[in-house]
Batch of 2 targets.
Target 1
Amino acid sequence: MDFTKPETVLNLDNIRQALVRMEDTIVFDLIERSQFYSSPSVYEINKFQIEGFQDLSFLDWALLQMEKVHSQIRRYEAPDESPFFPKAILPPILPPINYPKLLANYSDEINVNNEIKKFYVEEIVPQVSCKIGDQQENLGSVSTCDIECLQAISRRIHFGKFVAEVKYQNDKENYIRLIKARDVKGIEDSITNSVVEGKILERLIIKGEGYGIDPSLRYSQNPQSKVKPEVIAKLYKDWIIPLTKKVEIDYLLRRLEDEDAELVKSVV
Amino acid sequence: MDFTKPETVLNLDNIRQALVRMEDTIVFDLIERSQFYSSPSVYEINKFQIEGFQDLSFLDWALLQMEKVHSQIRRYEAPDESPFFPKAILPPILPPINYPKLLANYSDEINVNNEIKKFYVEEIVPQVSCKIGDQQENLGSVSTCDIECLQAISRRIHFGKFVAEVKYQNDKENYIRLIKARDVKGIEDSITNSVVEGKILERLIIKGEGYGIDPSLRYSQNPQSKVKPEVIAKLYKDWIIPLTKKVEIDYLLRRLEDEDAELVKSVV
């Protein structure tokens, strides 16, 4: 997807293709995480004494350092990336990219990363890790895998902004009416496609098996997938899909802030 | 693999299992890299003006920053990790792990990362990237994927030290004789197993197809793998396997530096 070309980004077919490709990344990242223990020490607030760093976990420390580096290589200039620690980001060392306007002005303010971190740590880690408990020498590796997972899931969920923007552009009058009426239920219905959602879950089961089982062992007795495919489907069903919808709804509810006042007034 | 337990690490079956698992990581990482252009700007020395940073590429800058963070989370304390910029590493923020002695004293000095970076940039990138050329807005993403690939390949190749150590332990007299005679050919023959090498290449073709093709599209017409499986097999055949052997040979040639002098003398 080329974010310098609005016509390629604000196109539902291209967005869907990008979302399907992101599933592969998320499945790969969960498989990598599954090599390690659940490692509660990584997530416990103030578990380690780190100078100048309080009320946060070791994962937070590692994620924050990583975001500092990534901000310097322009990660958070891209409209599809949302930092977990927006206050920590640094100016890029590369010349800036002049992205065209793709999303509404306030779009950076729609950020559900805290909710993502919470469900990831509480719900996903215990289900994808190979064993419950700590393994001291792997805490760094665990945090590195977690950062990959979190960034991939965050990108997937915040991509909802593009979905919302396209739907808004394609049916402005209807949305202006719903937004003016603060009709959350109506907005939710308009962005929900149960058939597509069902297909996502089916595809994730197939990908979980396809990528999680060593294909050279496929015909051996009882090959085990590194991460249970049902866990991946459930992650989407219970968290990724609902949070994507929340992003879409939050984005749409504010959409009139960045709309022509005359047009808004004209819709009754 | 538990590096705090020498008996689990210095065991050829366990090492082989770890090497097979690393293939998955390398294939995943190459597939992720294949989303982007070849991006020569990332690798060109002094392409970008970065304060206090000369005669290096943008990739070097990003890799060095990442290694600083990773060193602080203890990555380079682990005996299976080798930094690309050993001079840049920082003290860990976590308490140190007291790893038992697994490898010879000088093992950190065996480091082929410069050779790895060279073949990766020159030979692998043009073959796995989706298109030749630069795409300005993705230079950061490219460097992030490259770092993952480089670290995974580096770990795989330097794992040769464990293979060499086990082989040495299992047949000390023979190796002491070969090393004293500086018989590089004899050492190389003793560590080469053509049958195992052939199986690795076969397995990589299967993994390249298994992980590179979206399994939900497997029965559609002419599904394309994201990275050509033959490219992955060739990467192993031409670079990873020979460089692993170089690491093993370099490690073994110095092995008597860390051996009982009486024993060395007694072997004739």
Target 2
Amino acid sequence: MVQSSKKIQVVPEPTIRRMPSYLAFAEGLLRKGQQFVSSTQIANYMNIDPTQVTKDLSYTAIVGKTRVGYEVKALVEVLSEFLGFTVMDNAFLVGAGSLGSALLHDSGLSHFGLNIVAAFDVNSSTIGKKINDIEVFHIDQFRDLSQEMNVIMGIITVPAENAQTVADLMVAWGIKAIWNFTPARIKVPDDIIVQNTTLYSNLAIIFNKLHNDRKETR
Amino acid sequence: MVQSSKKIQVVPEPTIRRMPSYLAFAEGLLRKGQQFVSSTQIANYMNIDPTQVTKDLSYTAIVGKTRVGYEVKALVEVLSEFLGFTVMDNAFLVGAGSLGSALLHDSGLSHFGLNIVAAFDVNSSTIGKKINDIEVFHIDQFRDLSQEMNVIMGIITVPAENAQTVADLMVAWGIKAIWNFTPARIKVPDDIIVQNTTLYSNLAIIFNKLHNDRKETR
């Protein structure tokens, strides 16, 4: 369980987005045997201002020491816990197609606290198979299993046009958070957490820059 | 090739991020046989203001018609081309571990214009294997192949501590854009495009909301 005596405060999303990078940097230093790290050193690595680093880390329980900075080992522990990577949350994945299978293959997710316990599809050629030891069930079995398996998160990797239907099902079955990998925008009640991650949006950003560069140099 | 008579202009990143959602919506309407769509209809779907939709779409070549709005078929074509999804770009992936294999399994990438032509690793148990028909080579073979295969993009899915080394190699071998899936921040020359995509950052955002909610209700 995450236990904290700190006052609960809303952490800005850009801060949370930077934290896995702080963690990766601290883990690297830990492996090299470095004992302390300054906010300036972290800032140089991140290409941001040291005051931003200090501000970001002030949301966690870590306290820097004058002159030496943050203890690297403590920083790794505090950030991992703060980011929720030390608590296992159970998830269902709906849509065991190309992207869905890709995510089922990524055991990095479980390293970061996400335990995908089952996958669902409507495609009879996939149902009954195991992908990276995770069984694929027919979508109709969703309800019974979610209660049984204490699942609080749903991952949507179906085609965009089916995303809302799947989201509605997930809400009905008691899922608290939805990780939506489709470009579709889904509508859910206010108390349900939705995170949109569209890989192809990132791809579009790269292409836009690449192809504009090419046009400019013509 | 992308050819355009339009003046080249910098498109804001939030606009590009919304465009794959516009595209998904338009593709859905096309399948349903709807001929025209208004900016208000798109705005409702996206939960944003109609003026934002009009502004976003003004970066593309599409022109809306009074009263009826945008032609759906034209919208799909214009957005696909604008986002670079109709041009195939060749890419190398370095790091055929868990996340790397996951991306190699995602044939959606090629649907959106990204053709991963080869993968690289240093792990002898992976080298020589094919993942989703893409061969895994030893990293030392990178240079020769990149010239041979007209590769302009590199995807980094190695452990964070090796990201900079791989990025340096990619730059040396003539790669123009890097898609970095590690939480490490990489430093490259100004003319190289870098896009950071950290799946685990999105996971951290969900966890932060989930666990704070739980604490609040205690």
